[in-house]
């Protein structure tokens, strides 16, 4: 049976609540330097770029790396809007974990905002998805071992 992302998102929210983690956001007008500082301080690979409650972009480590190829003075003072990934790939909560992993692989992204009817529900990384798959497979293996060897 395929697991949908809504289930993974619920598990991640519970884990985040224990750790006190949050979704990290910036506005399109915040400076690139502010976004990079936030990512570094929070030890995260991306920040969501939000206008109010509307997701308008994502600013990731890949975007930061692209900055190193440009030798523009004052680049870190420019707004995130100038270098964010506009129109990020989003997925619905009804998508299966397996299809989400394929989406990450095929599109070469590591972060998937989960959006339903224009509302951001959360953010899943490829690590979140892999962790869920491994946990699920360990459960199946345990059940099979119990079946083979008896309780």
How does this structure look, described?
With 151 residues, the chain is α+β, with helices and mostly antiparallel strands. The chain contains five helices and six strands. It has one domain (5-149): CBS-domain (Roll). Helices cover 45% and strands 20% of the residues.
Q: Tell me the CATH topology.
A: CBS-domain
Q: What is the CATH H-level superfamily?
A: CBS-domain
What is the annotated CATH architecture? Answer: Roll
- Count every helix, treating DSSP H or I runs of 4 or more residues as helices: 5
Structure class:
alpha+beta
Using only C-alpha atoms, the radius of gyration works out to 18 Å
* Helical coverage, percent range: 40-55%
Strand content: 15-25%
Average residue-wise pLDDT:
86
What is the CATH class designation? Alpha Beta
> How are the strands of the largest sheet arranged?
1-2-3-4
Number of E strands: 6
Return residue spans where pLDDT drops below 50 for at least 5 consecutive residues.
none
Distance from first to last alpha carbon: 24 Å
Order of helices and strands: HEHEEHEHEEH
Number of individual domains: 1
Query: What does the overall shape look like?
Result: elongated
The largest sheet is: 4 strands, mixed
């Amino acid at each position: 049976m395929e697991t949908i992302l809504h289930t993974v998102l619920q598990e991640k929210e519970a884990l985040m609540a224990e750790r006190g983690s949050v979704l990290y956001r910036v506005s399109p007008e915040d400076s690139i330097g502010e976004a990079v500082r936030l990512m570094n301080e929070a030890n995260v690979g991306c920040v969501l770029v939000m206008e109010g409650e509307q997701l308008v972009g994502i600013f990731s480590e890949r975007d930061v790396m692209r900055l190193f190829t440009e030798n523009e003075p004052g680049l870190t003072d420019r707004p995130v809007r100038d270098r964010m990934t506009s129109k990020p790939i989003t997925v619905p909560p009804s998508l299966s974990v397996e299809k989400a992993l394929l989406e990450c692989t095929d599109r070469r992204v590591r972060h998937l905002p989960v959006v339903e009817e224009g509302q951001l529900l959360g953010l899943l990384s490829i690590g979140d998805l892999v962790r869920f798959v491994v946990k699920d497979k360990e459960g199946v293996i345990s059940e099979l071992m119990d079946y083979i060897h008896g309780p």
